[in-house]
């Protein structure tokens, strides 16, 4: 059975950030100990900026919020400037009233990576996010679940594809510095979220967005799995949506 996905087409990434923030506040304020699933990359940066501004202006408090991030590079510890722990601290956590102990990101330098993945999968199972924020890769990946990732995958170490290494090399001094592996929440773990918000902005996401929404549900298009989730909202700007059918 195909579930209905709500698609919101907004004019700009700024409008999307504001709309998603309102949705987060509305949903989390109804829950006693809310869990928010977070993502890294360029896409959520505006949203995190809105969250910080809202908090500083006396808006939503994150005191009781637990966050669970999607992924981390293997081999980068939290002090590395390109680690996702560092990204989250710098771009969100250090600027709001969240308890750092309640912020979860896989440990990319764990001695036993397999045990770390199993621990993380148990964490997600025990604390399914009330909302999971997702971006989408230009190749259709969600988190670091690259094309071909099994839909029943749980958190595990994955090899990054050339296309993802290329996309992410803009954050590093050279492409050789981009880690080749990551710990990624698996597709089955992502699907445990009670609701999912996927944000797609910019022309580089247009093809992946079109495929996710219109192509057959298949593992070569990881984001297409969302067609089977019970509560998904997609927020796209005009550039990302320009290849979508008009009706
Ligand atoms: P981006 O990455 O936000 O940096 O474009 C999105 C993703 O790979 O999920």
Order of helices and strands: EHEHEEHEHEEHEHEHE
* The first-level CATH class name: Alpha Beta
Count of DSSP H/I helices:
7
Rounded average pLDDT: 96
User: CATH fold name, please?
Assistant: Rossmann fold
Structural class: alpha/beta
Hetero ligands = 2-phosphoglycolic acid
Q: What is the helix content?
A: 25-40%
Shape label: globular
In the CATH hierarchy, what is the architecture at level 2? 3-Layer(aba) Sandwich
Radius of gyration: 17 Å
- Low-confidence segments: none
| Major sheet attributes | 7 strands, parallel
Oligomer: single chain
Task: For this entry, give a set of tags.
247 residues; alpha/beta; Rossmann fold; seven-stranded parallel β-sheet; three-stranded antiparallel β-sheet; 7 helices; 28% helix; binds 2-phosphoglycolic acid
Characterize this entry briefly.
28% of the residues lie in helices and 17% in strands. The protein is built from 7 helices and 10 strands. The mean pLDDT is 96.
Notes on the structure:
This protein is an alpha/beta fold and 247 residues long. The chain has one domain: Rossmann fold. 28% of the residues lie in helices and 17% in strands. The protein is built from seven helices and ten strands. The chain has helices at residues 13-28, 45-56, 84-91, 113-126, 162-168, 187-190, 206-214; strands spanning 5-10, 35-38, 66-69, 71-73, 103-104, 131-134, 156-159, 181-184, 196-200, 232-237. A seven-stranded parallel β-sheet has the order 1-10-9-6-2-3-5, covered by helices on one side. Strand 9, helix 7 and strand 10 (232-237) form a beta-alpha-beta unit. Helix 1 (13-28) crosses helix 2. The longest helix is centred in the N-terminal third of the chain and has 16 residues, at 13-28. It is globular, with a radius of gyration of 17 Å. The relative contact order is 0.18. The mean pLDDT is 96. 2-phosphoglycolic acid (PGA) binds at residues 41-43, 135-137.
């Amino acid at each position: 059975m195909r579930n209905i996905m709500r698609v919101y087409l907004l004019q700009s990434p700024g409008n999307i950030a504001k709309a998603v923030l309102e949705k987060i506040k509305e949903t989390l304020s109804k829950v006693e100990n809310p869990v928010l699933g977070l993502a890294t990359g360029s896409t959520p940066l505006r949203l995190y900026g809105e969250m910080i501004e809202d908090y500083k202006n006396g808006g939503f408090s994150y005191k009781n919020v637990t966050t669970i991030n999607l992924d981390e590079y293997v081999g980068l510890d939290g002090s590395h400037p390109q680690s996702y722990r560092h990204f989250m601290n710098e771009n969100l956590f250090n600027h709001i009233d969240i308890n750092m102990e309640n912020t979860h990101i896989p440990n990319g330098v764990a001695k036993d990576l397999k045990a770390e993945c199993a621990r993380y999968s148990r964490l997600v199972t025990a604390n399914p996010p009330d909302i999971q924020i997702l971006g989408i890769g230009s190749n259709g990946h969600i988190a670091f679940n690259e094309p071909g990732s099994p839909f029943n995958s749980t958190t595990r170490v994955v090899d990054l594809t050339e296309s993802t290494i290329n996309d992410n090399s803009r954050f590093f001094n050279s492409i050789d510095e981009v880690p080749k592996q990551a710990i990624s929440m698996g597709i089955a773990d992502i699907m445990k979220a009670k609701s999912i918000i996927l944000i797609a902005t910019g022309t580089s996401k247009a093809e992946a967005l079109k495929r996710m929404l219109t192509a057959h549900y298949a593992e070569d298009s990881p984001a297409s799995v969302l067609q089977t989730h019970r509560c998904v909202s997609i927020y796209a700007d005009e550039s990302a949506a320009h290849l979508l059918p008009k009706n």
